[in-house]
Design goal:
By secondary structure, the protein is α+β, with helices and mostly antiparallel strands. The chain is built from nine helices and six strands. It has helices at 2-9, 12-16, 25-35, 41-57, 115-182, 187-222, 250-271, 316-382, 388-422, and strands at 22-23, 63-72, 98-111, 231-232, 276-287, 298-308. α8 (316-382) packs antiparallel against α9. The longest helix has 68 residues, at 115-182. 15% of the residues are buried.
């Protein structure tokens, strides 16, 4: 009853952590993509860009500020003229030495030459570059997942082959034990096969240890607990000619995003030389007011339009445009270098695929021959016509032929998946 209650109260996250019984390569890649900490940075980049764009938009809002001053002037404007009527006293008003003012200032941008629009576009292009860098990292992670996935399949194939060899030896040892008791074969024959059986068990222990390490590595890459006995599915593939196309590679999108970013920076640099227009206003209360000779506290206001045009920058803008053009050339060269490397590696993989196809056809012929040789050797060993060493050599030869056939099958699937991953595509049918 207590156990049932614990299961019912178990949070969903715990239930979701139950190791899967079977996992395909596509599932492993998707899990790695979903749980990769690098991938979670994308949402953060979106949030940062949204905040930055909001701040840029506020540049079109009125800029309000409250300012206050109190100052003393060492000298003021004075009017020194003769009285209009001779020999009469006449006092001209004078400007006070003290000034007091408190006011509300307003500035409203009307036209900024496209600076804000260019900054918005530049910020968005920078975000796109960072997002594509994440995609490149995700792609490299998926290549790691594929490598570990096929390593596990290969290790299990070797273990399976050793298990079949072990069963053959156990059967032959049992038969030879009977023949030894009857005196038809020497005891050394049984001992030789028994020693080989022990070596097989030792090799199995090594392979099991390496398999556990590989499964643990895959579990870490996909952030999913995996049981040591989890079943892995060999991907299906179609044997067909491939047209090499690398447009889906995330690096290609990254190069384009970098070019778009540089182009946006080009527009931002050009907009810096355009004129800017803004409206301004000021409502204040102080002493004196706009009439400098009225020494009384009074309200006053000013409104107007301000224009500014920095039409000469000593060639800074043209040099910046030239530098941006050179950076675009660098991106183009990096893309050409990347494509050259991809094409060379893809052609090697195509050659490897064709080699493995031909090798598997020969494997089937070789296994058929080895089967006939072993069957004949078993009969001759039972009659004492050959030694156990000779028989063991033929049995191991058949074991190696079958193991090589299975390894070639895994390598062919791996080569096909690797080629499609290199082109930025995913293998269908698994």
């Amino acid at each position: 009853m207590i156990a049932i209650l614990i299961i019912l109260l178990m949070p969903p996250a715990v239930a979701a952590a139950t190791p899967p019984d079977t996992i395909t390569l596509e599932e492993a890649r998707e899990r790695a993509r979903q749980h990769n900490p690098v991938g979670k940075k994308g949402e953060l980049y979106h949030q940062i860009t949204d905040i930055t764009l909001q701040n840029l938009d506020t540049g079109w809002y009125p800029d309000l500020s409250l300012r206050g001053t109190a100052q003393y002037q060492s000298d003021v404007t004075e009017v020194d003229i003769e009285p209009p009527v001779p020999d009469t006293e006449f006092d001209f008003p004078s400007q006070p030495n003290y000034r007091y003012e408190v006011g509300l200032h307003l500035d409203q941008r009307i036209y900024d030459g496209g600076v804000t629009r260019s900054r918005r576009e530049s910020e968005q292009r920078s975000r796109d570059v960072r997002l594509q860098e994440i995609e490149v990292n995700q792609h490299h992670l998926q290549e790691q997942v594929e490598s570990v996935y096929f390593a596990i399949l290969s290790l299990r194939t070797q273990q399976s082959s050793l298990e079949m060899l072990k069963e053959d030896l156990e059967t032959r040892i049992a038969e030879l034990e009977t023949a030894r008791r009857e005196g038809t074969v020497p005891a050394s024959a049984v001992d030789l096969l028994s020693a080989e059986l022990i070596e097989i068990r030792q090799n199995r222990l090594k392979l099991e240890s390496r398999e556990r390490s590989a499964v643990n590595a895959l579990s870490e890459l996909i952030s999913t607990p995996l049981d040591e006995q989890v079943a892995l599915v060999l991907p299906e593939y179609d044997i067909e000619e491939h047209e090499l196309n690398f447009n889906n590679r995330p690096e290609m999108h990254l190069f384009q995003a970098q070019r778009d970013q540089l182009e946006s920076r080009r527009g931002l640099a050009a907009s810096a030389l355009l004129p800017a227009v803004s409206a301004f206003g000021q409502a204040s209360y102080g002493r004196p007011g706009l009439n400098l000779f009225d020494d009384e506290f009074q309200p006053w206001f000013i409104i107007g339009i301000r224009a500014q045009w920095s039409f000469w920058d000593w060639g800074n803008q043209s040099r910046e445009q030239e530098a941006l053009t050179l950076q675009q050339h660098i991106v183009d060269r990096q893309q050409d270098e990347f494509l050259m490397s991809l094409r060379a590696e893809a052609h090697e993989e195509l050659v490897e695929i064709r080699r493995l196809q031909n090798a598997m056809e020969l494997d089937d012929e070789l296994i058929a021959l080895r089967d006939r040789i072993v069957n004949e050797a078993e009969s001759r060993l039972d009659h004492g016509a050959i030694t156990a060493t000779e028989y063991l050599g033929k049995l191991n030869a058949r074991h190696r032929a079958k193991l090589l056939r299975h390894q070639h099958e895994i390598e062919l699937a791996r080569a096909y998946v690797k080629l499609n991953t290199r082109m930025g595509d995913r293998v269908t049918g698994y």
